[in-house]
Every structure is written in structure tokens, then in C-alpha cells.
């Protein structure tokens, strides 16, 4: 459902699964608006997160996108904190607006990339379809709109600082290269969106091996196609 602007938004507002979303034309493509209107945007990820995240949890999210998942979780669960990392600098202001519009105060947004270790800023390729923006300069039929230099932080340093209970990851194929470097055993659950069209069978195996090394087991009942869940054995807290 679309509506008029609110005091917290310069744009008309639409509603999806209880979340208010500003219809900023710079971000909200017709395809995205339709997915939100039909409650289908990131539905598999959101459904898995509802099963994995409990009140009092700290959540670390890689690939925050428009801020829908973090906003939804902060409204549905009394989380301690959500730290969301998004490489696309054009989406940071939109995330802030989403959180303010929904009166969410437990989410901290970081414009940064995570890598095996802290390094020099890295080129991030922004495309007209922001969902296809990535570290790769070549994605077929999707020309680059701009190239941004983004801060690079160390994966394990961030995990040690944040100390997450639940990890959510949707980073457009970079999961296969990044996650094998994870050395953190404090997770209770993880939700990973795989991109087998880019990482292939070897990359999928690398993600599974990384999660198993972190003490988590694949849990098919909470998984849905490319969105896969891992968790520690019961009892959970």
C-alpha cells in the first residue's frame, strides 16, 4: 500500500510486512516496489531471520541493501543491536531514512567492506540496478553507473568487536572468498544467501565448510533454496 509523505520522510511511503519504506525514485525501481507491495522482497531471508534471531541478540549483517531486513528485525525482535555493513554508499542515506521512519534505534549502519584483513579502500561498482552492484567490474548486460572507493575492514576484527549471536550475509557472490577466513566461534546461527550462478559448486562448498568450521551445522528446515541456515545444536539460549 502506498501513502503520502510522513514527517520523517520527504517521499511518499509504502508499507511491506509492517515496515514503512520511502518511495525515493533514486532507489525504488518498479521491480523493487512490486516486490515490496507483494511482501516478497527478501522474503526468504526475512523468514529465516525470524526463526534464528531471538530477543536480546546481537546481529551482524553483511550486505544491508535498502535496510529492509535490519528494520524488519528491529521491529519484530527486541534485539540488543544490529550492525549492518553496506558497501554501496548510495544506499546509506536511504537506510538511515528507513530506520528513522520506522523509529528503529538499535541498528548501526556502516559504509564498509569486510575483507580477510583491513586494507586500502577498494573499488565498488555501482549499477543502475543496485541489487547487481558489487566488487566485480563485469556483470553481463549491467553497465557500471559509478565507481566508489569504500573502506575495507578486517572480517575477524569486526566479529570480535561486535560479538554477534546471529550472522546474516548477502554479498552478491563474495561469500565464497570471504567466509573461509572467518575465525569466530560465538555464533549461534547464520543465514547465508548463496549465489551459485557466480561462485559455482566449489564456492558453495567453501561456504558450507566455513560455517561448519565455525561450529554451525546446516539446518535444512529453516533454509529455502539459495538462502541457507546454519545453527548450533540445541539447546539454544
Automatic annotation (TrEMBL):
Keywords: Methyltransferase, Transferase
GO molecular function: methyltransferase activity
Domain of life: Bacteria
InterPro entries membership: FkbM_mtfrase, SAM-dependent_MTases_sf
GO biological process: methylation
Gene3D superfamilies listed in its UniProt record: Vaccinia Virus protein VP39
UniProt keyword annotation of Isomerase present: no
Annotated transmembrane regions: none
Protein name, UniProt field: Methyltransferase, FkbM family
Taxonomic classification: Bacteria, Pseudomonadati, Pseudomonadota, Alphaproteobacteria, Rhodobacterales
